[in-house]
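As practice, study what follows.
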Amino acid sequence: MSRPISNRRAISGAQVRKAPAAKRAARPPAEQPGQPIALGDLSGILGYRLRRAQLWVFKDVNRRLARFELSPAQYSVLAVIAANPGINQLTIASALDIERAGLGRLVDRLVQQGLVTRIASVVHRRYYALHLTAAGRKLLDRVRPVIAEGEKALADRLGTAYDNVLQALSTFLED
């Protein structure tokens, strides 16, 4: 049996050596909040900038949809079903690039919330046709103006470049 060594403590059953106070104090301070850091090569990479834009948009959309207890993925599925009544889950998963299992769980939640119905397909025995319920249509009607406000905020942020960015990014809609 080993003796406990000073400056050690048990964390999750493992022995971890605690740094002496002098060494802890000598470490560089954590990043200063609000201080910009150099991005190096990242600042000139379009993919990085697109990712930053996506993060900004998703944060904004999440904030806007929170009052409806709806996620961006749920909104997307509702919008696709509204535009394509009777669509099946496999087609939605392909169009939105969502894993089939994940989409299945998402649709299950929408069905449980009374926003979507599944009707057995008369064409393909293993598929279900998806339709919005009256509550689903009503919710989507309330959400659309809120999403439009977010799109306007994005357009305001991009200014005159908005239409060009929208056009340029449309090349990725069919991939």
In short: Residues 1-14 have pLDDT under 50 and may be disordered.
